[in-house]
Amino acid sequence: MAVAMNSPAVPVAEAPQRWLTDPILRVENLTMRFGGLTAIDRLSFDVGRGDITALIGPNGAGKTTVFNCVTGFYKPTEGRIALKRGRNIADSVVDQLTASGDQHREHADGSVYLLERMADFKITEKAGVARTFQNIRLFGGMTCLENLLVAQHNTLMRASGFTIAGLFGLPAYTRARKAAMEKAIAWLGYADLLDRADDPAADLSYGAQRRLEIARAMCTGPALLCLDEPAAGLNPRESAELNKLLRLIRDEHDVSLLLIEHDMGVVMEISDHIIVLDYGKKIADGSALDVRNDPRVIAAYLGVDDEEVEAVEEKLDVGDVDAAIEVAHVDGTTDAQGRAS
Ligand SMILES: Nc1ncnc2c1ncn2[C@@H]1O[C@H](COP(=O)(O)OP(=O)(O)OP(=O)(O)O)[C@@H](O)[C@H]1O
């Protein structure tokens, strides 16, 4: 997908650097090899609790592979992925858990999970990590409301004691069913889809389907929400609606977000923290402002040669980002994916 570094985005004001002081997710020395190909190479980064963190980079940089490792779809070749559900959990607690060989530990300040040791369904259910995919995966024939109820199936099954007792009006099940309905209706509201509750999901516009998918992920009660290209294919109005929903999730629901995104307008506007990958390695890590001005990032996206990075740097030294991008555009030869050809 083409990437526009010079989109008219206004970077957000400098936010507190929570990824340094209070990480919810800590990825350390992550390596993923597919046969002879090293897709991720000793990658380390932190995701701040309560932040919107964007993982960006040209096509093939390894973003989806990182997501697949965090969410348990892939078992990493090496590395540790620790999720801390609770503030002030010392690194020594994570080290003790690692040494114990266990997957999870309850601690006075919260729970710690080693995601690289867990199956994907446990990562969702126990650690509280939800995700969406590049291609929308709703149940198209079900209504919007039904999609959000299905997401709460596990909670309802637990409440029924995993029996048919729910059918006979077990009080715990009746309460859980009411709570599930209230949650589904609340998320339809947050996603601005209340008036479409009884319509089949497949009838919604593309942007509305994206918001429904995010609402469905939120119905699982995550602590960390991973979104794979949520703005792909959206028009400017739909992107603005998406940004509003993502900010609401961060600001009012105490959920941290990790997203892969190619749309630099969305990334620069809503991200507290940006991590840039190229060829499976981290090439930049910081606020939107830092990353936007980083010559290595511009070079990676626009495909300039190493010696031309200096020319880009010179323009940036005098604060002329647009001229730096212009230099990169003239000198770099890019293919449609923003990768040098
Ligand atoms: N299951 C797999 N088997 C073999 N190679 C893979 C597999 N998954 C990913 N790769 C390779 O790993 C590298 C990183 O791919 P990945 O999909 O993570 O990149 P990406 O940054 O998400 O790209 P895009 O922006 O196009 O989605 C690529 O070279 C890709 O071909």
UniProtKB/TrEMBL annotation:
Which SUPFAM superfamilies does the UniProt entry name for this protein? P-loop containing nucleoside triphosphate hydrolases
Keywords noted in UniProt: Amino-acid transport, ATP-binding, Nucleotide-binding, Transport
Q: What is this protein called?
A: ABC transporter ATP-binding protein
Q: Name one GO biological process term.
A: L-alanine transport
Q: Which family does it belong to?
A: Belongs to the ABC transporter superfamily.
Query: Cross-referenced InterPro entries, in alphabetical order?
Result: AAA+_ATPase, ABC_AA/LPS_Transport, ABC_transporter-like_ATP-bd, BCA_ABC_TP_C, P-loop_NTPase
Is Cell membrane among this UniProt entry's keywords? no
Sequence ranges assigned to domain ABC transporter in this UniProt record: 25-304
State the organism named in the record: Aureimonas glaciei
Give yes or no: UniProt keyword Chaperone: no
Pfam families under this entry? ABC_tran (PF00005), BCA_ABC_TP_C (PF12399)
Molecular function GO labels: ATP binding; ATP hydrolysis activity; L-isoleucine transmembrane transporter activity; L-phenylalanine transmembrane transporter activity; L-valine transmembrane transporter activity
A GO CC annotation recorded here is:
plasma membrane
